[in-house]
Amino acid sequence: xxxxxxDSIGSMQNCVSIVRDxxxxxxxxxxxxxxxxxxxxxxxxxxxxxEVTQSEVLAAQQRQAAEIAPQVQDLIGGxxxxxxxxxxxxxxxxxxSELNKSRLEQFPMTRREVVDVPRDADNVVEVTxxxxxxxxxxxxxxEKLKMEISxxxxxxxxSVYGKLPQ
Length: 166
Known about the structure:
single chain, mainly alpha
């Protein structure tokens, strides 16, 4: 910090010496009253910089730290509250998940598993001749109904498209 401050001071002193040299050169070149007036205005606009001591810099830093510290503490407190609420939500969700898992384990077979019977070749079901005939009869009836539905859909399309202007 001290090194940077020393560099800044050296740079400022260098700038001041350059401005002085330039103003001296301009004064020596000024041959007309108009030029003298212009140079006078330029020199009046030159800003002067003062050195700032290290104790002043430290005092300013301490003032800023004292001003900012309560705000930072408030922000940290708010973040801690939010984190604790998120932790409690996480615990609640974990316990709810465990409860749901235990409920699922109590019912090993879902409704679908009970209804769906795998249709493997290994699962051969013995049926009587009557049941087989009834099944074939139901399949024929099903095919007839499919055909009837197709015919009705076709008639419906014909009636809709037949009414369209050509």
